[in-house]
Write a structure and sequence with these properties.
Elements lengths: L1 H36 L3 E4 L2 H12 L25 H13 L4 E5 L9 H13 L6 E5 L3 E2 L12 H14 L12 E2 L12 H15 L1
Parallel strand pairs: 1-2, 2-3, 4-5
Helix pairs in contact: 2-6
């Protein structure tokens, strides 16, 4: 009788241990997969890119980095691969690892940007990211008829969008144009930047573009 009770006790403990072992890895493994998928996409741009990143995080986006202080960093801030802007980018790389995807936003002041400058941005994005990283490229957000971003000039947003489409059509650049970001009336706070509602809208558009 004593031997039977002892055997039953051992089996009960063993069964309980097996149950715990079986249940634990599923949750842990799923958690690790989700963690690895977070922050695997970097971005460069100016405050307009920050607006997108702010809205992206606020609406639950996890793949792309959150805002990291790129205000005022137009195209010319990113043409040198050793610029202060790229050093800021590299701080994010140190934090999250080299991204497997990068969004390049073409952002300008009234002096504009050339296509050669845009190609330098693309080359530098590859240099500072994982090998074979997917490069997405867009211009600044476009506005409803009658609106524009005064900081970029009368046709500045449209010019940046045209440069992005040109890069995507250039097979030597191997970049993806997912579409144009849009800001509508009531979503702009100062003639250029998104208000909280606009940020939310931009964030949802980003999730639709790349997840």
């Amino acid at each position: 009788m004593h031997s039977t009770q002892s055997l039953l006790s051992v089996l009960a403990v063993f069964g309980s241990a097996l149950s715990g072992i079986a249940a634990t890895p599923v949750t842990t493994h799923t958690s690790l997969i989700e963690k690895r998928a977070d922050h695997t996409m970097g971005f460069i741009g100016c405050s307009m890119a920050e607006n997108v990143a702010q809205g992206y995080v606020a609406t639950g986006g996890k793949k792309m980095w959150g805002p990291y202080g790129t205000g005022g960093m137009v195209v010319q801030s990113w043409t040198s691969s050793t610029s202060a802007s790229w050093k800021l980018y590299d701080q994010q790389v140190t934090k999250y690892g080299k991204p497997s995807a990068v969004w390049v936003q073409i952002c300008i002041f009234t002096n504009g940007a050339t296509y050669d400058e845009v190609k330098k941005l693309i080359a530098n994005a590859r240099e500072h990211s994982a090998s074979n990283a997917t490069i997405y490229i867009t211009g600044q957000p476009l506005y409803d008829a009658g609106q524009t971003c005064t900081l970029a000039g009368a046709h500045g947003p449209e010019d940046t969008d045209a440069l992005a489409q040109k890069a995507a059509a250039d097979t030597t650049q191997n970049v993806v144009y997912p579409g144009a970001f849009k800001l509508h009336k009531g979503e702009v706070q100062d003639g250029c930047h998104a208000n909280s509602g606009g940020q939310s809208s931009l964030g949802k558009q980003a999730q639709a573009f790349w997840g």
